[in-house]
Amino acid sequence: MADVTVKKVDAMESIFGGSFVRARGELGVTSFGMQVLNMPPNGQDYPEHSHDGVMADDKQEEIYIPLSGSATLKVGEETWELAPGTMARVGASAVRKVLPGPDGCQMLCLGGRPGHAYEIHPFTEVGGPVPGA
Known about the structure:
It is a single chain. The chain is 4% helix and 38% strand. It contains one helix and seven strands; from the N terminus they run ββαβββββ. The mean pLDDT is 92.
């Protein structure tokens, strides 16, 4: 049997009212972080953060890939418009915020720590704990 996992995003387990899809855990990915965020139109809930050891200690860089809708990526005073067909990489030390557009945004987020093996966060596992619950 081939080592392949195929699932529809809508059929994957999610937390936070469907806004955080446990895509990594659902597909069994172990070498990098991968989640899908479902952000509502003009939402403000995605936290401003970095991964430099101050806000989060994993020092990972992140890739943002919009699957549908649009969003604005803000890093410092600079902004970039993200839509399907556009990808953005943000380094660990950059303080970033993603602001979904008027139609919301479904965003595939990938993360990894340069030069290090990926460490799975328990809340990304299917059936795992919900942060803050």
